[in-house]
Design goal:
Pathway: Carbohydrate degradation; glycolysis; pyruvate from D-glyceraldehyde 3-phosphate: step 5/5. Keywords: ATP-binding, Glycolysis, Kinase, Magnesium, Metal-binding, Nucleotide-binding, Pyruvate, Transferase. Its EC number is 2.7.1.40. The chain is built from 2 helices and 5 strands, in the order E-H-E-H-E-E-E. The protein is elongated and about 45 Å long. The protein has one domain (10-86). Helix content is 28%, strand content 24%. Helix 1 links the parallel strand 1 and strand 2. The protein is α/β, with parallel strands linked by helices and 87 residues long.
Length: 87
């Protein structure tokens, strides 16, 4: 079993680092921070899926930190088809 160090390395995944995920993982990155305040949801979804895919392929315990905008009202469609407000 791999030994796990207690100190964690957190890296924000942005445009400059998207194509270097494997290199970052190999260098010891423990937590991928994705800033959902910038870019579209589709762009962030692609970025998140790429992180999850490489994490699975390399079998590494990489955490995913999704940083959303500050306090605001968020609404969305639920599977019931009704709109639900989240505080």
């Amino acid at each position: 079993m791999k030994s796990l160090r207690k100190t964690k390395i957190v890296g924000t995944i942005g445009p400059a680092s998207e194509n270097r995920l494997e290199e970052l993982f190999d260098a010891g990155l423990n937590v991928c921070r994705v800033n959902y305040s910038h870019g579209s949801w589709d762009e962030q979804k692609e970025k998140t899926e790429a992180i999850l895919k490489i994490r699975e392929e390399k079998d590494l315990p990489i955490a995913l930190l999704l940083d959303t905008k500050g306090p605001e009202i968020r609404t969305g469609m639920l599977y019931t088809g009704k709109i639900q407000k989240f505080n």
